[in-house]
Amino acid sequence: MKINTLNDELKLENKLCVAVDVGKSSLDCYAVFKKGTSQMVVTDKFENRSNMVRSGLMNFQKLAAEHGLGGVHVVCEPTGGCEQSLLRIAHELKISTAYVNGESVNKLRIVRQNDTGKTDDLDPATILLAATQGRQLTVRQLPAGYAELRELSVV
Prior knowledge:
There is one protein chain. By secondary structure, the protein is α/β, with parallel strands linked by helices. 37% of the residues lie in helices and 25% in strands. The protein has five helices and six strands, in the order βββαβαβααβα. A six-stranded mixed sheet has the order 3-2-1-4-5-6, with helices on both faces.
């Protein structure tokens, strides 16, 4: 008989991991952290506008500081550009970021919720679950010259 200890907590240097479902007009956020022996769940929703995103992320930073966490880590799906403002502001605020594969989240949603429909209020929890299972992808910040090269090569 082989016995293993399962640990589904996200090990990110004691950071508050915030999963974000990005839409054109709004961001749905979900985070879980421990307070003593209890698990605390934080949900938030704010507009996908720069000033609202900045204040929302700063609120998560305050929450992390209040509970002795070492910072914030933002996880989201790449959504065709709608997430760029979130990632840019997160990097300005020195918040670490990562992507999760949209297809993985979609399939995990079917398993977790037994539903194939789009549910914005439940998707961030599925994104966090994918992140805790090690399905994070690196967010690459390339210099401006690379964007120009991409435009030139689209022929």
